[in-house]
Amino acid sequence: MISPSAVSKVSAALLASVVEMVEAFTIVLAVGLTRNWRSTLTGTGLALAVLVILVMAFGSLFRLMPLEALRLVLGVLLLFGMRSLRKALLRAAGVIPLHDEALAFACETDLLQRQAAEKRADVLATIAAFKAVLLEGVEVVFIVIAVGPTREMTAYAAIGAVVAMVLVFILGAALRRPLTQVPENTLKFAVGLMMTAFGIFWTGEGLGLVWPGADFVLIAFLVLVGGVSRALVLAKRRALGAA
Amino acid sequence: MTMLRQIWAAVWGMFVDDGALAVQVVALVALVAAATWVLPPLWAAGLPVPGCLLILVTSVWRAKAKHGPR
Fold first, then answer.
1. Would residue B43 count as lying in a domain?
2. Residues A198 and A147: beta-carbon distance below 8 Å
3. Structure pTM?
4. pLDDT in tens, A25-65
5. Given a cut of 60, is residue B68 above it in pLDDT?
6. Which domain holds residue B24?
7. In this complex, is the C-beta atom of B26 within 8 Å of any C-beta atom belonging to chain A?
């Protein structure tokens, strides 16, 4: 039976992967529809191969570290990931605009159409797909490694990421248009919340703190940070409205 | 080289989007580490959550409105 801890790791990786893969898919689709699918799939495949190598390399590297030090390093890196939560809150409050997949698709299509006459148009298309999948995938790789510092947990997190990627690409291929209906900011908020909660937990573990309730304290972190975040969005919206 | 720079920018941006937030996180971790020397581990465990919430609230609160797609 899968433990609650494994479920939380699969969920964190799955949500993070959905968000990043929706953004990557928009570019991949634009490249495929504007140029050709051969270049697109070549770029996507190469990027996925690089990502697998990164997971294996960094996963092995981190496992060489003593457990306490590893927890501290990953915890601090996850706390830096609090900027994801910050950005989601700023978008929810209306301080910065929401990410627009339709606009990203239009911009990429326009760029590829302008490059269509060039002799190396196919190479440029391959590079565009490669870059999109690699740049978005790097964030997923980090989350997969950070939420699952042990070999078993990395495997669980990787399963979540791969399932999300396959779902996004199957759904997108069936629809043949950007996935504009996916509530990206809500998902980013959830991912930011999990990164912050895991970050606090692992940092504390790395520093030798004693958490009341052991692993269950993670639930309290999620509720507390989530509640404060919600109140903060409402207060910021009111402040912007009053300004 | 351009692609390497973009990959580096993406990785760097993952952690240090807001410089002040990153510095405050490091300061908080240093403070908690110092507290573990003088306080029992259970008491020191009371510091990270309020610290992170304070950092988050001040960072969001001082953010100015930006317009245009991102």
1. yes
2. yes
3. 0.79
4. 888 988 888 888 888 899 999 998 998 888 788 877 877 88
5. no
6. 18-67
7. yes
pLDDT at B70 over 60: no
Rounded to whole angstroms, the Cα distance separating A48 from B8 reads 18
Are A200 and A85 a contacting pair, CB within 8 Å? Answer: no
- The answer to whether residue B13 sits within a structural domain is no
Query: How close B28 comes to chain A (CA, Å)?
Result: 10
The first and second tokens of residue B56, run together, are 């988050």
Dihedral sign of CA atoms A169, A171, A174, A175 in order = negative
Does a structural domain hold residue B57?
yes
Query: Structurally, how many domains does chain B consist of?
Result: 1
Residues in contact with A242: Cβ distance below 8 Å, sequence separation at least 6, in sequence order: none
A150 φψ region: left (φ > 0), alpha (ψ -120 to 50), beta (else): beta
pLDDT of amino acid B69:
46
User: Which of A19, A76, A78, A82 to substitute to test the interface with B, most B CBs within 10 Å?
Assistant: A82
Most A CBs within 10 A among B24, B52, B70, hence the mutation to make, goes to: B52
Whether residue B2 is contained in a domain is answered as no
